[in-house]
User: What shape does this take?
Amino acid sequence: MEKARRLIIAGNWKMNKTVAEALDLVNGLKRELANVKEVDILVCPPFTALCEVSKAILDSNIKLGAQNMNENNVGAFTGEIAAVMLKEFSVRYVILGHSERRQYQKETDELISRKALAAHNAALKPIVCVGETLNEREGGLTEKVLDRQVHGSLAGLTPEQMEETIIAYEPVWAIGTGRNATAEQAQQAHTFIRSVLAKIFGENVAKKVRIQYGGSVKPSNARELMSQPDVDGALVGGASLEVRSFADIIKNSI
Assistant: This one.
């Protein structure tokens, strides 16, 4: 069955890879994935490797993303990175509101919405992360949490901006734990998220938005996850740090 939306599979390298290691990884991916045309392939290295990775993928089918950005364009924000700085390295996507940043940096939905607006103003495509914790899922709060995060994290976006926004559903209990949502659980959550988008932005917009699944995606479960009608790709963590596993996830998704 032909997918309604083009798959997008992104590797979130988190705080891993020196510049030399990053180049080894991306050069290996270029070789392995050179003939893949059916999927948008994205790597998100740490800030320190963006410049060299950007050069390495210049004429390839791999696109570049960043892991975070500040909501301000310029100013006295020590340790922060602005959208315009990312653009210097041909960054096209930026991950916002990852559960690790929500947890460790106490990022709120309201802050994430400001970052998403700033990304669009700089012509970057945000990947906005949402997802429930284990306690929330076991307490039957999954839909309540997703509804709140989708409304809050996307507040202020126009329908046109929403069409250029990607959502990553990442159940927090499945990130880096080896546990993953079943294909059915992922599909249920994605269907619900799309229904919330339809209420906010209209049915036509909701149908166009790509929703990735993130949470212990690996080659062995990629095909089943990606075959779900509302799963439009993956945000891959640990398995994106090795050429073979990330390439196999992408190949198994086609």
In short: The CA atoms of residues 97 and 129 lie 5 Å apart. The first helix runs from residue 19 to 33. The chain has twelve helices and eight strands. The two ends are 11 Å apart (CA to CA).
